[in-house]
Specification:
The protein folds into 2 domains: 3-99, Enolase-like, domain 1; 101-347, Enolase-like C-terminal domain (TIM Barrel, Alpha-Beta Barrel), CATH 3.20.20.120. 38% of the residues lie in helices and 16% in strands. It has helices at residues 37-51, 59-68, 75-95, 100-103, 132-144, 164-182, 198-208, 225-234, 248-256, 272-285, 298-310, 356-360; strands at 3-11, 14-21, 26-30, 111-117, 149-152, 187-191, 215-217, 239-241, 262-263, 289-290, 317-319, 331-333, 337-338, 341-343, 352-354.
Length: 384
């Protein structure tokens, strides 16, 4: 069996790859460097010369070659490798007529626990934007639907120019409302989206400890692994990092330097199924849990669920209702949400298919938005 064709498509707001073998088996993958999908698409084109004619079952060999074919690293490269890797695992599962999780060591659980990626906007809230009332009401709805974990960005609008006291007070109000709506039998997760500095991130975390979040995610920019690890040693709330990290070497350094308690690799960015499985093993050796990142749609969900099924240190899978949107009905997935869980799929491969010809007809809309928060003095809000 040889790789005969590779297609890379920018459609909707996603980058999807299809690999076809000479005996007609197809594999599907997706990248998650959503800010630079056009560049990732170009890298896939550069991979074709090497991959065409190769045995698709030699997955780790191809991973090593593609990663080391040039002296360059970074998000675009690993995202392209991730998409190829996921598609190759899909082919391998179909070739052996087995779910990919079976090839990764077998099933460790019967269902995948989800945490809902939740906002606060709703028509019956007191006002618009990030509001405590909207968060409380949406938490009630999520619990009634069966979720046992929910995640929000709790920072108030205009956080970048607030005094520390105002930032803490308004954020605390939002988290208190979330906890009130969720109750004590639901885990709450606080996603900061890399918006704070180490100084105010530590002060804020201490004021939110009383609400017992499951973890405090990505509070600072990703420029330094050392800084992220140091932050984990200085906060009482468990820290989560990794959705913008790429390799086993970055995760190893983070753990060795003291954090984080929760690893957040994105299977569409951190090297695909091959590499995320290795990251999970490193995390396990540090007694760190794995919470795979995803908000890009059902292909990433399907690939991630195969990892979740087959590792011992899985806690919860990030889930966005984008998976259930009209735009994504073109995908036929075997990983279907039931309340706050997804039952383990027995489908061969990664468990998802798509009508590729229909996919190609979708207009592409880039996700990259130059919406950087600016402070009142016109300086960049993300800067220290």
């Amino acid at each position: 069996m040889k790789i005969e064709k590779i297609e890379s498509v920018l459609a909707g707001n996603s980058h999807i790859v299809r690999i076809i073998t000479d005996n007609g088996i197809e594999g599907i993958g997706q990248s998650a460097c959503w800010g630079y999908m056009e560049a990732t698409d170009a890298v896939i084109s550069s991979f074709k010369k090497y991959l065409i004619g190769k045995d698709p079952l030699q997955i780790d060999h191809h991973w090593q070659y593609l990663y080391r074919m040039g002296p360059f690293r970074g998000s675009i490269l690993t995202a392209a490798i991730s998409a190829i890797d996921i598609a190759l695992w899909d082919i391998k599962g179909k070739f052996y007529k087995a779910p990919v999780w079976q090839l990764l060591g077998g099933k460790l659980r019967n269902k995948i626990r989800l945490h809902l990626l939740m906002g606060s906007d709703r028509p019956d809230a007191a006002d618009q934007g990030t509001t405590s009332e909207g968060l409380r009401l949406n938490a009630i709805d999520a619990v009634s639907e069966g979720y046992t974990a929910i995640k929000i960005d709790p920072l108030p609008d205009g956080y970048e120019s607030m005094t520390l006291s105002r930032l803490i007070a308004d954020t605390r109000e939002n988290v208190a409302a979330l906890r009130e709506g969720a109750g004590l039998d639901v885990d709450i997760i606080l996603e900061i989206h890399r918006k704070l500095t180490p100084m105010n991130a530590i002060a804020l975390a201490e004021e939110l400890f009383e609400f017992h979040p499951l973890f405090y995610e990505d509070p600072i920019q990703i420029d330094s692994i050392k800084s992220q690890a140091e932050l984990a040693l200085k906060t009482s709330i468990p820290l989560a990092n990794g959705e913008r990290m790429h390799t086993i070497w970055e995760f190893r350094e983070m753990f060795e330097l003291g954090g984080s308690q929760y690893a957040r690799p994105d299977i569409g960015l951190a090297g695909g199924i091959t590499h995320v499985k290795k990251i999970a093993s490193i995390a396990e050796s540090f007694h760190s849990a794995v919470v795979t990142h995803n908000y890009l749609g059902p292909v990433i969900t399907a690939a991630a669920c195969n990892i979740d099924t087959s590792i011992p240190n899985f806690i919860t899978q990030e889930y966005s209702t984008i998976d259930e949107s009209d735009m994504n009905k073109i995908f036929n997935t075997a990983w279907v949400r039931d309340g706050g869980y997804i039952d383990i799929s027995e489908s061969i491969g990664i468990g998802i298919n798509v009508d590729f010809e229909k996919l190609k007809k979708q207009n592409f809309e880039t996700r990259l938005q130059q919406n950087i928060p600016m402070r009142d003095d016109d300086s960049v809000g993300y800067s220290v």
